[in-house]
Amino acid sequence: MIRKTTLPLVFGLVFLLLTITVTTYSFWDKLTAADEDKAIVLGSGIDLIVEKVELTPPAGKYLVPKGAVKGVNDVDEIVLNYDVQLSEKALNDLHLVIKAENVTIGGSSQYAYLVNIEIEKEREVVNNDKVAVVVKVFLNNPDDESVYQEVKGKAIKFELHFTAQQ
Asked: DSSP letters of the chain?
């Protein structure tokens, strides 16, 4: 008779033990679950704004090497003016770095060494106040007349990279 009452009691205790284990695990699992309700909104940051102000010489003028005899439509220097600023005020002024890269004459970099690009900045740092930048482009006089004939009348292209760094 002891066996008949003990067996349901053992099954009841095992059932109770399993129920407590499952309940405890469920509670613990909720504690370690990822919190998916939190959201972090990313700001847009600060943009570097480059405004091209002026290009000289006017249309119809041609660039000739520095020191060459100039004709009526010839100039020995082309000046580009830019205004550079940050889109909003930064905590600290940032160092303004400007690089001229990928210089080509008539689509080829073979004679790119003839092109000189001088970059002058009003200030070395930039924030949300405008910084005037002057870029002067001129040609060196080639050693050989045939080299000049190769580049004469061809377009000079280059990339200006403006960067604000800490």
From this structure: -HHHHHHHHHHHHHHHHHHHHHHHHHHHHHHHS--TT---PPP---PEEEEEEEEESPTT-EE-BTTSPP-TTEES-EEEEEEEEESS--SS-EEEEEEEEEEEETTBSTTGGGEEEEEEES-SEESSS-EEEEEEEEEPPPSSHHHHHHHTTPPEEEEEEEEEE-
Structure tokens at 63: 């660039």
Amino acid identity of 65?
Answer: P
Q: Where are the domains of the chain?
A: 48-165
Q: Specify the pTM.
A: 0.69
Closest CA to 84 of 56, 108, 110, 119: 119
Lowest mean pLDDT across 14-28, 98-112, 121-135: 14-28
Mean pLDDT of the chain: 82
Nearest to 71 by CA among 51, 53, 57: 57
Instruction: Read off the pLDDT of residues 69-120 as tens digits, 9 standing for 90 and up.
Output: 888 888 888 888 888 888 888 888 889 999 988 999 888 999 999 999 999 9
